[in-house]
Write a structure and sequence with these properties.
By secondary structure, the protein is mainly β. It has 2 domains: 666 residues, Maltoporin, Chain A (Beta Barrel), CATH 2.40.170; 79 residues, no CATH class. The protein contains 11 helices and 49 strands. It has a 22-stranded antiparallel barrel, surrounded by 4 helices. The chain is globular.
């Protein structure tokens, strides 16, 4: 571990680059949406702002809990244009979250970018813009905002609070808070463009943006717009086929058992496969062989999916009087995205011996047949998302500050897929009493036994394009009051109080054929539901001691919130914190609080649906495992010793669960800040231990994990063993449920370490920012008294990655007109959730991604950026229970080395 940490530190110190281009003049005290112009450290001493994690106005930007601030300067220096890329590089991010290289984006959220703090789930990370909630994105009944709905050029900083904050912000802030602070008083006109492409010449990414603002004595207006278009990267270019360990120590292409010729079972259990050559002998069939017949899906999937997006933001304010200011915010985002998918498949078609297309002379079941004739399916989405906020803020005679605001956001989406089969029409084409082989027949008969045998007439009859509609709404009204109550010897007692009304609504109306269950896609039911919340909170900050021996300053903070939910009743949550400045160089801090999260609309009302998800069957080749418990359980399930999982997917039931109950949590942190200015000026060291305990946790346990836990439990005694069935003839798992449930408990603890160093060395301005997280424990108890499922140190199986160690470091060197930037992301070793010791990919190695940028100030107002991401072309490691592309796409980079160039100019 020590060598790994030193490797990261030394790598990040190689080079890096400097100050943000075209920084604005530091603003005056601008209210709770304002802080500094580009870097937190430059806040005027007299400016009172609201720090993320507190509603009280303060002149001190230092938080009393673990937090990370990503400034506009840092975003510019690393060349990142998408907010999710900024946040997902941070070591506090783990697990699974949506991005363009993650094949399993959030349900109905294709193209939606999210962040998953601590790996506790995107639903437990609260995302704010200027301390206010954002409407959910996606295509209906979603639970997370789209991070990329805010134009990057207008972002002043991103505060990441890695601590529970339900008492401050209400539900959902279990793992932490991401608060995006915008520069609402931008002045001038700025334009920029950036173009990137991979070393292989694919995945081009073009971004153009504009920022404009006018500020006067009594008011002002700022606006920003970003347009982005990214091209696709085919998965086969990075992973030519789906790999599996078919024999010990050997990886071969396993691919999908849904073949283009059709795989069938005869009455005696013999498995056969029909002609695989389009235009070949339509009556040919032979014994099925996975190595010979399986279908390679990778050429029909993307490593990166294309996306086109326009994001806009508008901010205005006007001083009605010296003490009252009116303000407004408006966001609008249009997103168009699509994903190529493998040709659809048909399952379990009964074809009689009398059917003229059946050459076997026996009744058979066509177990799986890939519809290769029409080509791949194209999933598509179009979303429109907007949110408006208006309000008044001001000061009272006693210098108390107040604010009243109302927000309304709405997201609507259209999504669907081409080349979906209507199963009723498929059945008609197999019923010779209904169909006809005559030309021009209204219902043509179909020949599904053999590749290329389906005629254009049959395809026109059985295929359709599905279209689904959905959306999300958020309405809220807030009233806040903050100020100072009275003076104590150590300082003034400050407070904040307020009330909140919030209503969230989600709906989704799938295509009627999908609802009816006659489409060969995930059957879905309509979703519609809403939740209403009424809240009141009080927060106090009490200075206890000041300038006494061993106490330069000691402050205690406390907050309490009452929440009333229309579906679940009321709850109280609280938080206490201590901030102890011992001497100038040493500061201790601690927090303790409770949290509460109610099930959201998709968790409660999400229509139950079925789909084929990448899942590992532990009984595949089980005699080779050497695991006595596994072997005994597979034998008890009637699985033959020579059984091999035919493909990499299993039919899985997902969706909502109206029986869910709220989850509660307790969290605490203890930390220290060390700033030895007298010895090493500019150096800050931080260390924070965190502990989170969630009861009645709402979680969907992935199918691979359920199967692994079941078959590693003696005598199949685990309740997960009731969540699937096996085909007694083939031994294959026929169905599996992964609907959300209230698990017994989730426990997590770990350590955050940080190093910040800012120093001028001669004419060079050097800045180092290094963060490392150690995950000590993450354990899920699926039910009271049940065996724990250990997540810490593991990866894969649809869960994402939970390595023990993660790190991210950025070093900047300002050489005047030239800035250099070097950043390194470290993803530590991890063990596959579902693999056995000795399997290839059982344990993944340490992975380092290095990125470099050089920026030139061409003129006083123009800057040119040249950069390389994944500088050393690090490949993603093989993961036994991969999600796609033979790795964990939620954790690792698939693209390899890529280059970009950008230019900015300010008028």
């Amino acid at each position: 571990m020590r060598r790994t940490a030193l490797s990261l530190l030394s790598a990040t110190i190689l080079a890096s680059g400097g100050s943000a281009a075209f920084a604005q003049t530091a603003p005056e005290a601008l209210g709770d949406t304002q802080a500094t112009e580009t870097t937190v450290s430059e806040a005027p001493a007299s400016a009172e702002i609201v720090v993320t994690g507190s509603r009280i106005r303060r002149t001190d930007l230092t938080a009393n809990g673990p937090a990370t601030t990503v400034t506009a300067e840092s975003i510019a220096n690393t060349g990142v244009v998408n907010i999710e890329n900024v946040l997902q590089r941070l070591p506090a991010s783990a697990g699974a979250a949506g991005n363009q290289t993650s094949s399993y984006w959030t349900s109905n959220g294709y193209g939606t970018a999210q962040v998953n703090l601590r790996g506790l789930g995107i639903k437990r990370t609260l995302v704010l813009l200027n301390n206010r909630r954002l409407v959910a994105g996606g295509t209906g009944a979603n639970s997370s905002p789209d991070l990329n709905m805010i134009p990057t050029p207008i972002i002043e900083r991103i505060d990441v609070l890695k601590d529970g904050a339900s008492a401050i912000y209400g539900a959902d802030a279990v793992a932490g808070v991401v608060n995006i602070i915008s520069n609402t008083r931008f002045e001038g006109l700025g334009i920029g463009a950036r173009y990137g492409i991979t070393e292989r010449g694919d995945g081009s990414d073009f971004t153009a943006d504009l920022t404009w603002g006018i500020q006067g004595e009594r008011g002002g207006f700022s606006a920003a717009a970003t347009y982005q278009k990214t091209e696709d990267v085919n998965m086969a270019s990075r992973a030519p086929c789906a790999l599996g360990e078919t024999s010990p120590g050997v990886l071969t292409c396993t691919n999908s058992s849904s073949t283009i010729g059709g795989r069938a079972v005869l009455p005696d259990g013999t498995m056969i496969n029909f002609n695989q050559t389009p235009g070949g002998d339509g009556d040919f069939y032979e014994p099925y062989s996975g190595a010979k017949h399986n279908f390679n899906s990778n050429p029909f999937l993307n490593a990166v999916s294309p996306i086109e997006r326009l994001s806009t933001a508008f901010f205005t304010h006007y001083d009605i009087s010296d003490d009252v200011t009116a303000f407004g915010e408006f966001l609008y985002t249009f997103r168009k995205s699509d994903q190529v998918a493998t040709p659809g498949g048909l399952r379990n078609l009964n074809i009689s011996a009398a059917n003229p297309t059946n050459p076997t002379g026996e009744n058979l079941v066509l177990v799986a047949r890939r519809l290769a004739e029409p080509g791949p399916r194209i999933f598509f989405q179009e979303t429109h998302t907007w949110q408006g906020t208006g309000g008044l803020r001001g000061k009272l005679a006693n210098n108390w500050s107040w604010e009243v605001a109302a927000s309304y956001g709405r997201n609507t989406g259209l999504d669907g897929s081409t080349n979906i089969a209507n199963l009723e029409h498929v059945a008609n084409t197999l019923n010779t009493n209904v169909c006809s082989f005559s030309a021009g027949a209204a219902v043509p008969c179909g020949d599904y036994l053999g590749a290329g045998d389906l005629t254009p007439e049959v395809l026109d009859y059985i295929l359709f394009t599905s279209r689904d509609h959905g959306g999300n709404e958020l309405a809220s009204v807030t009233a806040d009051l903050t100020g100072e109550l009275f003076a104590l010897p150590a300082g003034d007692v400050a407070f904040a109080t307020g009330v909140v009304y919030r209503k969230e609504k989600g709906w989704r109306d799938p295509d009627p054929l999908t609802v009816a269950g006659v489409a060969n896609t995930n059957q879905q039911d309509p979703i519609s539901g809403s939740t209403t919340t009424k809240e009141a909170y009080l927060e106090l900050s009490v200075p206890v001691l000041k300038n006494v021996p061993f106490v330069q300053a000691l402050t205690l903070d406390g907050a309490v919130r009452y929440s009333d939910y229309n579906l679940f009743g009321s709850t109280w949550n609280y938080k206490v914190a201590a901030d102890w400045q011992i001497v100038d160089a040493v500061r201790l801090r601690a927090t303790y609080g409770t949290g509460f999260r109610v099930p959201n609309v998709p968790e409660l009302y999400g229509g139950v649906s079925e789909g084929n998800l990448t899942t590992t069957d532990p009984c595949s080749r089980y005699p080779q495992s050497g695991n006595a418990v596994l072997i005994a359980n597979c034998q008890a399930s009637g699985v033959r010793p020579d059984y091999v999982q035919l493909g990499n997917t299993i039919l899985t039931t997902v969706g909502g669960n109206e029986d869910l109950q709220p989850e509660s949590s307790k969290s605490w942190t203890v930390g220290a800040v060390f700033q030895p200015r007298a010895i090493i000026p500019g150096l800050t060291l931080t260390a924070d231990w965190f502990n989170i305990d969630i009861k009645d946790a709402i979680r969907s346990i992935p199918g691979s994990t359920k199967l692994a836990v079941c078959y590693n439990t003696p005598n199949l005694a685990h309740p997960f063993c009731d969540d699937f069935t096996r085909n007694p003839l083939t031994g294959a798992i026929e169905d599996l449920t992964a609907q959300p449930i209230n698990t017994g408990r989730e426990r997590m603890s770990g350590l955050d370490l940080g190093v910040v160093y800012n120093r001028s060395i001669g004419a060079v301005g050097l800045s180092v920012d290094l963060n490392v997280s150690y995950l000590d424990e993450y354990v899920i108890s699926p039910y009271p008294g049940g065996d724990d499922i250990i997540f810490d140190g593991f990866i894969g199986g649809g869960n994402g990655g939970y390595p023990k160690w993660r790190g991210y470091g950025v070093v900047t060197a300002d050489l005047g007109t030239v800035d250099l930037t070097w950043s390194t992301q470290w993803i530590g070793k991890a063990t596959d959730f579902n693999a056995a010791p000795g399997d290839i990919g059982y344990r993944s190695p340490n992975v380092f991604y290095h990125n470099a940028q050089v920026a030139f100030d061409l003129t006083e107002n123009s800057r040119l950026q040249l950069g390389v991401d994944n500088l050393f072309d690090r490949d993603a490691p093989f993961i036994q229970s991969w999600t796609d592309a033979n790795t964990d796409t939620m954790t690792y980079d698939l693209l390899g080395r890529r280059y970009y160039v950008g230019i900015r100019h300010r008028f």
